[in-house]
TrEMBL record:
Pathway: Lipid metabolism; fatty acid metabolism. The chain crosses the membrane at residues 20-42. The keyword Transmembrane helix applies. Keywords: Acyltransferase, Membrane, Transferase, Transmembrane, Transmembrane helix. InterPro entries: Thiolase (IPR002155), Thiolase-like (IPR016039), Thiolase-like_sf_Thiolase (IPR050215), Thiolase_C (IPR020617), Thiolase_CS (IPR020613), Thiolase_N (IPR020616). Belongs to the thiolase-like superfamily. Thiolase family. It catalyses: an acyl-CoA + acetyl-CoA = a 3-oxoacyl-CoA + CoA. The keyword Transmembrane helix applies. This is 3-ketoacyl-CoA thiolase. GO terms for molecular function: acetyl-CoA C-acyltransferase activity. The lineage of its organism: Eukaryota, Fungi, Dikarya, Ascomycota, Taphrinomycotina. Gene3D superfamilies: 3.40.47.10. One of its GO terms (cellular component) is peroxisome. One of its GO terms (biological process) is phenylacetate catabolic process.
Amino acid sequence: MEEYDYRKENCHQGFNIRIAIASYVSTFIGYHFNILSLIGFVEGISMAQQRLQQFVQHLTSTDARSRLEAKSPDDVVITLAIRTPLTKAKKGGLKDTVLDDLLYSVFKSSIDKSKIDPSKVDDICVGNVLNGKAAYVARAAALAAGFPNTTALSVCNRWCSSGLLSVQTIANAIKAGSIEVGLAVGAESMSLDRDDGIKEFSETVMQNPESKDCTMPMGWTSENVSRDFGVSREKMDAFAARSFQRAEAAQKAGRFDEEIAPVHTTIIDPKTGEKTRVVVDRDDGIRPGTTAEGLGKIRSAFPQYGPNTTGGNASQVTDGAAAVLLMKRSTAEKLGQPILAKFVGATVAALAPRIMGIGPSLAIPKLMSIHNFTNADVDLFEINEAFASMAVYCEEKLGIDPEVLNVNGGAIALGHPLGCTGARQIATGISACKQRGKKVLVTSMCIGLGMGMASLIVVE
Ligand SMILES: *[C@@H]1O[C@H](CO)[C@@H](O)[C@H](O)[C@H]1NC(C)=O
Ligand SMILES: *[C@@H]1O[C@H](CO)[C@@H](O)[C@H](O)[C@H]1NC(C)=O
Ligand SMILES: *[C@@H]1O[C@H](CO)[C@@H](O)[C@H](O)[C@H]1NC(C)=O
Ligand SMILES: *[C@@H]1O[C@H](CO)[C@@H](O)[C@H](O)[C@H]1NC(C)=O
Ligand SMILES: CC(=O)N[C@H]1CO[C@H](CO)[C@@H](O)[C@@H]1O
């Protein structure tokens, strides 16, 4: 009976193991044993057990890192990750570049930079959201850029994650053995391919309130996130200012240079209609000297929905493309392709459309449970800043150290060309890791109509 009481008042973490030890001891030593020495014995075990637990925790974390960093010939690896500059829709250097030419440019840069024999590329997947004819355009652009008629191509669309969906699609095809080498691309001309949204669905579909929410603009979801989770305008502006300041510093230090593949294109003077050949080689959305105080003065972009989302604290409307070349490690070695990183995997999570912005707060933990890792194992996070409201929420909810989130700024400063972003984050994230001597990278984004996607990459 005494033993029972003892155990009860010492009920904490080690409870079960201690009961097990105590009953084991009492069974074998019986009632001849002095209860005090039993208590002392059990306390000793408990301390040892605590030390063991700490050791196991340490070991588990080290284990996760070494498991993530382990190399096998069957790993799916990234041998190239590049992007075009990201430029302001309607104003920037790519404003007159149709999707055909944006894709042509990024395809051609992929071949030139990787020096891969294009006939070795079995399949291309292009993430694109807004161009209704992307499947025509992309295949034609691939042929023009130098991919032979034997290189297949598909187009995918899961809104803001399309660029990552294309990477996942290619990686899975390689993993399954259905292709050997594939190019994953994301591209969007927000200048020329407009999103007019949708006003309504069929009568049957509109009866569902969540379906009805799918007609609402993204600014509405940002205000919902701000209100539901108490994300203040002040926090949003502070986050946005940080994005601008980091992007400005990164650009000045040349930290984007390696990932950017310049675009040779034509720009039209809006007044004279005169066409000029230009080389677009830098991001133009970054506003030098941006401060939270300055952002605080910008008027609400969606006053009809709520007060806190502005042109200064939401992602910019932007043109751009990015490409990621993937194959097995063994294939990369055979073809002499440089191994930049291992693509470990990706996952998607879905939620109510009215708060779509918090998608990463579900997708990232899901990714962590699939691949058995925690925040402590991650060196850098790239979470797409669709809106500061969702970015602030995700940073806080996931307990991410601000020092490791979007170290070179994000979509608020650089822009968010919808279909491009998922591939763009991989290019930026890999170069950020390389520059800082870091390895484990998580990329993630929220997705319109209520989803989130996340990927795990280990840089070598
Ligand atoms: C496919 O492309 C190759 C060159 O890459 C060309 O020689 C061949 O004629 C093309 N096939 C057909 C049926 O046109
Ligand atoms: C958010 O969504 C709901 C619909 O579920 C709406 O009624 C509400 O007013 C919205 N706006 C804000 C700012 O919360
Ligand atoms: C906007 O920010 C204020 C504080 O700046 C906060 O009280 C409010 O909940 C936020 N969201 C909405 C939708 O008003
Ligand atoms: C993660 O751990 C669980 C059990 O702890 C195990 O079943 C699973 O195979 C592990 N997954 C990976 C990717 O290591
Ligand atoms: C992504 C987004 O909704 N951005 C908006 C930011 O605010 C400006 C107006 O100031 C809107 O035009 C953008 O659409």
